[in-house]
Amino acid sequence: MLFFLSLITRLLARLLDRSGTDGSKDVEILVLRHQLNVLRRQVGRPKFRPMDRALLAGVARALPKRRWPPFMVTPSTVLRWHRELVRRKWTYRAKRTGRPPLDPAIRDLILRLARDNHPGGA
Q1: Does residue 99 register a pLDDT over 80?
Q2: pLDDT in tens, 37-60
Q3: Helix and strand totals (H; E) in the chain
Q4: Which residue ranges make up each domain of the chain?
Q5: Nearest by Cα to 91 from 83, 99, 101, 102
Q6: Is the pTM higher than 0.70?
Q7: Separation of alpha carbons 15 and 27, rounded Å
Q8: How confident is the model at residue 27 (pLDDT cuts 50, 70, 90)?
Q9: With 98 labelled, which of 7, 30, 50, 87 sits at a CA distance of 20 to 30 A?
């Protein structure tokens, strides 16, 4: 284990020497990715809020596909979120079918005329 730690330390030192100031960012990204992998093993499925979904979808669209492995969601999940969003936005109230109801005053007039007229005619 100690040998493994020593090897990693030497590799990171060479990476920092070779790449200058940007190397520290690469190491930081490497550490963050490793921490994310550790958390994925320990924690159950995360629950994203609408703003989280919007942020991840926007960033996913800006990044090329080869940069997607660190994402906690798959491209199919982002597409499903989009379908749900469109489905919720474009829902319309169901139209009533059939004849529209009569105004109560007209209904009362029809009933009164039916009562006043004799069934046998004049």
Answers
A1: yes
A2: 777 777 777 788 888 887 877 777
A3: 5, 0
A4: 10-44, 47-90
A5: 83
A6: no
A7: 8
A8: confident
A9: 87
